[in-house]
């Protein structure tokens, strides 16, 4: 019989990469983790780990067991969430830690905070459990996923572009929030020169000769801009790099060049900027990720539901 606690340690090793990091996450000593993994190998009857230099790597059998571990641990998390819901008694407020990419942190998270505050103010104390406390960390999608899988966040708000898909990480569930269209931002004067009327769809092939303002190369948004221009048959002539879309939009308004900007990332002030959808649409799907089974926990479930609510409000303002 395989021991679930040892299986969890093997899965954690696959996430953290080293016995030392796994031991720290599990509040155990390194030798204790090594002993538990050795015992798991005896239970399994096949080698689960092998040394490559000074590093332990999963064997094929180890990778297979980790795949099963994600399912097993997800089912356990779901069972714990259901039991927690049954015994919920309106006690103390729980903490939900969120890692979100910058424009979601700027637009969606303030709306979420207001919804939680409004719900607490409107509902009588016995009507529902107290609203959870939120802790926000701004993080690009890769870092947000890493925080979620390492147990440093309970929910990750991430994005994936239609031209740059992102695989669902192992042991995670996806809660799709909205599809965010990517727009072409051009200086108002350039729009006249390019014969683009307000709101008219733009063909990127006509922008090959323009100066381009790109997100920083450390972001997936940079790769998206490169791919979109490449699909249109040219390499963008970049004159500025900035990871803040507010900076890029301000530079567009100043006439420095053109940029691709997701609608969610647009600042409130777009003076001097003409915005256009693309004839070959590109979208950025925004999702919330939770560890498998944990979204059924009452407070985390409440946060995910409210994220759906505020995302719908962003898609259809005024409703």
Automatic annotation (TrEMBL):
Give the superkingdom in one word. Answer: Bacteria
The record, for PROSITE patterns, names: HTH_LYSR
Record carries keyword Ion transport: no
Tell me which residues make up the HTH lysR-type domain: 2-59
Residues in coiled coil? none
Q: Known InterPro entries for this protein?
A: LysR_HTH_N, LysR_subst-bd, WH-like_DNA-bd_sf, WH_DNA-bd_sf
Q: What keywords does the record list, in alphabetical order?
A: DNA-binding, Transcription, Transcription regulation
Q: Please give the family membership noted in the entry.
A: Belongs to the LysR transcriptional regulatory family.
Please give the PANTHER family that the UniProt record associates with this protein: LYSR SUBSTRATE-BINDING, TRANSCRIPTIONAL DUAL REGULATOR HCAR-RELATED
* Record-given protein name: LysR family transcriptional regulator
